[in-house]
Amino acid sequence: MDRKKRKKIQKGIRLGIQILFLLVAPAVFTSAFAGAKYIVTQFAAGELVELSAFLKTLLAIGLFTIIFGRFFCGYACAFGTLGDIIFMISSGIQKKIKKKLPKLPETVSHLLKNVKYVVLAGVLFACMFGIYDRFRGSSPWDVFSMLTSLRIPGKEYLIGVILLAFIMIGMAWEERFFCKYLCPMGGIFTLLPILPRSLYRRNRENCFPGCSACERQCPVHLKIDGDSVDSGECIQCNQCLENCPKENISTGFGKIKGNEIWVILVKAVVLFLLCMYLDLTRW
Amino acid sequence: MLGENTHFKIKVINLIAIVAVIYIYNLNLSLWETTETLKFQETRADMAEKQLTELESSLDNLVKQYGDKSAAQEISASVPQSKWKDGVYQGEGAGFAGNILVEVTIENGVIANIEVLDYGNDDEAYVNMAVGVIDAMLETQSSEVDAVSGATFSSNGIKAAVAAALQEAEGE
Predict the structure, then answer these.
(1) Where are the alpha helices (DSSP H) in B66-149?
(2) What is the Cα–Cα distance from B113 to B94, expressed in whole angstroms?
């Protein structure tokens, strides 16, 4: 099969899986993060940390990520999919009017990646000190969840609506803007010990000298060298593999590169069954 | 320092530390809770004994005043009358993505049972968290309890549904 055609098929499969999860299981990311909030809330209340539905989601999605890498982020997170769709529309428009939005300097985006830890710590501290309820209505995720449930957010969600609007502007500007800079759940995922074998690495000796096709395409600015400071950022979008002229990138599992259609489908099915087990699928 | 896959190893250690903290917290808390429950039961036994002697003395008083009708009436009036009539009542409230339907059973004037019959399109995982409010409702005998954090919408749906059912139980 020629490369261009295969690239198209792979892009189509990814978008298909993303839309399926968006429609059928759009609340997994909030539920998993609610698991983290639940732990600190129980700490603060002096109550036992029990295996509640939210904690189960956090554990299941966390374990899935440790084993397979952040496939959930790249293929199944409803909020990530929102970002991808907005960015797709935005880059389409940019191509048409032949004007490009300026890119953030690499150093700035590197710094911005740390903001998600501030968001994560902020939310967990708010839960710890019992002031989280005071920020009700300012969560852009709540507003998004309402929209996926076909509900119109009321007046009390004004701050959340405004924040969501700003995030959507960011999503149009940079691919995976929210995921790499702001997502508190992304912060947790980044800190998880993903099996080094499940991480992508390139065989540098085999690279064309001076080629950086993979790095330029990477939405989260990775060097793609297996286990590194930033390796937890990889959301398995597989664009590095799609764009490498030598297909010189792979996971550590023998001949498996990581973007084979059957590998993607196996991961998607496992994740979908997991969501069904967690009671997070609709219809 | 740690050889290959340094970052992976550091993250494993971090994760183990976090899990250990939660585990030790839980262990400590359940130990503490068991001792507290024992203490609580002891004090409750003491209190029950005291109440019994008090009751006995007031019974003596009653016997002494027997024949004085007004006193007997006073006492029967001081026994609280439940505002709810016995029966099974249904109520609806808005959850996250649809209405939540509950069934409230009133027995001997108290809320004996609350059951969620239907939760529309709400995710089951969220409803499973939100039913935590039901225990609190049975304990306080009121629909006005704190929502389960993280599942506020489903909690509020259950609260509203129970309130509606209780309204019906109040009758005319």
Answers:
(1) 69-78, 124-130, 132-140
(2) 20
B143-153 mean pLDDT: 84
- Give the pLDDT of residue A255: 83
- B87-170 in CATH: which number? 3.90.1010.20
Contact B22 A39 (CB under 8 A): yes
Q: Which residues contact B29 (CB under 8 A, 6 or more apart)?
A: A46, A47, A48
pLDDT of residue A1: 62
pLDDT score at B102: 92
- Structure tokens belonging to residue A237: 């979008």
Contact B97 A195 (CB under 8 A): no
Whether ipTM exceeds 0.85: yes
* Beta strands B99-107; B110-118: pairing state: antiparallel
Query: Residues of B with CB below 8 A from A226's CB?
Result: 5
Q: Which residue, A193, A39, A58, is CA-closest to A125?
A: A39
Question: Once rounded to an integer, what is the mean pLDDT over residues B149-154?
Answer: 82
Tell me if B8 and A52 make a contact (CB, 8 A cut-off): no
The minimal CB distance from A34 to the residues B25, B33, B150 is found for B150
